[in-house]
Write a structure and sequence with these properties.
alpha/beta, Rossmann fold, five-stranded parallel β-sheet, 17 strands, globular, 2 domains
Length: 319
């Protein structure tokens, strides 16, 4: 029996987020009948992109009220789609927007929820999701029980983006009253200084207290820029006021899962490891050979970061 699946794609400023293509991959692993929804002020462009990557039946929901993300409006519109298409599994990305939206959807639809999944398995109409716990030291499994719709957020960068595929775009008509809201979002202010989104980055270069002073943050950012990478930070230097909280990786910051993670001057406290130890390749640079970070590192360099980092930056800049 094919499992009906609804994937909630994500867009920013009308541009489809890459994590949306990872949802298609998850649905393909489940072997279900996929419907993908994209909500935007102008939805047909991103809907066409989803269809070309195998998004199944792609529902393009367009309205000026969808220009900016609004929990209330999105949840109300998607609940209507759930009632119409009757999915057994609803997928969204474990991003800031996805986490807020799915919790509300699960409550509105009397569903069950599992967050931050990193593994999927299907046996007929039985679905099992897995997610890390206790700082990644334990993997928990969750199965859908009874008739409750299962809402799942997918950790970004765990699954590959879907390649070329076949799908069809359907312009979805929704009752205009669903777009009314008690809250009005007038504008979205984008923080400057970070060209690459931390949670979606393939490469992250992160700094810790070992960089010694705020003035040295630019040394680490130089390496990040040479790689086209996002800049990350430990809680220690955020608390010290050396960089903004939006860069913080760890238990009280962001959980990331890039292909390559540079940990520079980071000792490796458990609070930081929780947020990054599932990275595919970890390169640690620290002068303390006994630093805990080396226990999770794929490659470790023991030495003076002020000699190593500029040399790496020069090498990467030269191509």
């Amino acid at each position: 029996m094919s499992i009906p699946i609804l994937a909630i794609a994500e867009q920013k400023d009308g541009k489809l987020a890459n994590v949306s293509l990872e949802l298609i991959t998850v649905a393909q692993k489940l072997g279900g009948e996929l419907t993908t929804a994209i909500l935007a002020e102008n939805a047909e462009g991103p809907a066409g992109e989803l269809a070309s990557h195998g998004g199944g039946k792609v529902l393009a929901v367009a309205n000026p009220a969808l220009k900016y993300y609004n929990d209330e409006v999105y949840a109300r519109v998607i609940t209507e789609l759930i009632r119409k298409y009757q999915p057994r599994v609803v997928l969204a990305s474990a991003t800031f927007y996805g986490k807020a939206l799915m919790a509300r959807l699960a409550a509105l639809n009397n569903g069950a929820m599992v967050s931050d999944i990193v593994g999927v398995k299907a046996d007929g109409d039985a679905v099992t999701f897995s997610r890390p716990a206790y700082g990644g030291n334990v993997i928990l499994s969750f199965s859908r029980a009874g008739d409750a719709v299962l809402f799942a957020t997918v950790r970004p960068k765990v699954f590959d983006e879907a390649g070329a595929g076949v799908g069809e775009v359907s312009v979805e008509s929704v009752d205009g009253g669903l777009f009314e809201s008690r809250m009005a979002v007038n504008e979205m202010v984008v923080e400057s200084g970070q060209s690459v989104n931390l949670t979606e980055a393939d490469i992250i270069v992160a700094a810790g207290r070992g960089i010694r002073a705020q003035d040295n943050v630019d040394v680490i950012k130089g390496l990040a820029n040479s790689l086209g990478a996002a800049f990350g930070a430990s809680r220690a230097i955020v608390d010290a006021g050396w960089t903004e909280y939006r860069h913080q990786v760890g238990q009280t910051g962001k959980t990331v899962n890039p292909k390559l993670y540079f940990a520079i001057g980071i000792s490796g406290a458990i609070q930081h490891l929780v947020g990054m130890q599932t990275s595919k390749t970890i390169v640690a640079i620290n002068r303390d050979k006994d630093a805990p970070i080396f226990k999770v590192a794929t490659f470790g360099i023991v030495g003076d970061l002020f000699e190593i980092v500029p040399a790496l930056t020069k090498r990467f800049q030269s191509g």
